[in-house]
């Protein structure tokens, strides 16, 4: 097995509030991993530490042979642009941009020329079920449509790892299923590793494996009973 990304004994506190107490997690390359657990247990903090958004107080984060937590802010941000994609609970599309420009954003930030970036972004719309909506603003889309656009934005640059934090949390169950079908379908096709934070069992059911975060630590589901 090849490990794509790993947290080793990661500790992180927000001021005096401990969020991660010693979190260990290794995600295999190409794996779709669900990170479950109750609200406030540290799931998002773990995702942010793995993605180099937060720097642990102690412990290590590894990606592709690199100690992510030792990189400068600038190099972590370059790493996020080149290798990671993100989808959050509320799509967080840029309202001033058209939908196709939103999808193209990671490519533009990565230095792809505008025409080429828009061409590649447009290629997503049919499979998103959003044909003809390229020029709309995000305010003119339903919640499910906007989240599919956010998903395309997270995957357009073919990241090695996609971090998804409650990607269906704001959607009804049918729309949530469509988003998950798309997310997992594209990830498997592209060989993308997925770290999926969710507290919903029906979302976690899409994953190859589940871990549970409890009180700032990662536990395997089969250890819960003990
Ligand atoms: P989860 O994603 O499992 O709901 P979080 O990682 O968001 O949990 O939060 C873990 C702990 O850290 C909680 O006690 C939460 O209240 C606290 N926390 C999270 N974000 C912040 C923040 N920005 N400022 C202060 N405390 C925070």
What profile does the largest beta sheet have? 6 strands, mixed
CATH class of the domain at 1-83 and 194-226: Alpha Beta
Radius of gyration: 17 Å
Helicity, as a percent range: 25-40%
Shape: globular
Poorly predicted residue ranges: none
Q: What would the average pLDDT be, to the nearest integer? A: 92
Describe this structure as you would to a colleague.
Helix 6 links the parallel strand 7 and strand 8. With 226 residues, the chain is α/β, with parallel strands linked by helices. Helix content is 33%, strand content 27%. A six-stranded mixed β-sheet has the order 6-7-8-3-9-10. A four-stranded antiparallel β-sheet has the order 2-1-4-5, covered by helices on one side. The protein has seven helices and ten strands. The chain is globular. The longest helix has 18 residues, at 173-190. Helix 3 (99-109) packs across helix 4 (114-122), helix 3 runs parallel beside helix 5 (143-155) and helix 5 runs parallel beside helix 6 (173-190). Bound molecules: adenosine-5'-diphosphate. Adenosine-5'-diphosphate (ADP) is lined by residues 14, 17, 19, 37, 39-45. Residues 14, 17, 19, 37, 39-45 line the site of adenosine-5'-diphosphate.
What tags apply to this protein structure?
Rossmann fold, binds adenosine-5'-diphosphate, 226 residues, alpha/beta, 10 strands, 7 helices, 6-stranded mixed beta sheet, globular
Task: Describe the SSE topology.
Elements: E1 3-14, E2 17-28, E3 32-36, H1 43-50, E4 58-63, E5 66-67, H2 73-83, E6 84-87, H3 99-109, H4 114-122, H5 143-155, E7 161-165, H6 173-190, E8 193-197, H7 201-204, E9 209-214, E10 217-219
Parallel strand pairs: 3-8, 3-9, 6-7, 7-8
Antiparallel strand pairs: 1-2, 1-4, 4-5, 9-10
Helix pairs in contact: 3-4, 3-5, 5-6
The structure holds adenosine-5'-diphosphate (ADP).
Adenosine-5'-diphosphate binds at residues 14, 17, 19, 37, 39-45.
């Amino acid at each position: 097995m090849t490990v794509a990304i790993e947290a080793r004994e990661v500790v992180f506190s927000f001021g005096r509030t401990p969020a991660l107490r010693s979190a260990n997690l290794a995600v295999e390359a190409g794996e779709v991993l669900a990170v479950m657990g109750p609200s406030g247990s540290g799931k998002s903090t773990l995702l942010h530490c793995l993605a180099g958004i937060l720097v642990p107080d102690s412990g290590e984060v590894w990606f592709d042979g690199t100690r992510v937590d030792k990189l400068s802010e600038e190099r972590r941000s370059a790493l996020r642009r080149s290798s990671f994609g993100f989808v959050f609970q509320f799509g967080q599309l840029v309202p001033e941009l058209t939908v196709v420009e939103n999808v193209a954003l990671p490519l533009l930030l990565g230095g792809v020329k505008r025409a080429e970036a828009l061409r590649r972004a447009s290629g997503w719309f049919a499979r998103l079920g959003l044909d003809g909506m390229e020029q709309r603003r995000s305010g003119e889309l339903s919640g499910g449509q906007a989240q599919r656009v956010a998903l395309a934005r997270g995957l357009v640059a073919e990241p090695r790892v996609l971090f998804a934090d409650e990607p269906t949390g704001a959607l009804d169950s049918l729309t949530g299923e469509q988003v998950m079908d798309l997310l997992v379908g594209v990830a498997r096709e592209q060989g993308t590793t997925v770290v999926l934070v969710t507290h919903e069992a029906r979302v976690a059911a899409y994953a190859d494996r589940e871990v549970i975060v409890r009180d700032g630590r990662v536990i395997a589901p089969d250890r819960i009973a003990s």
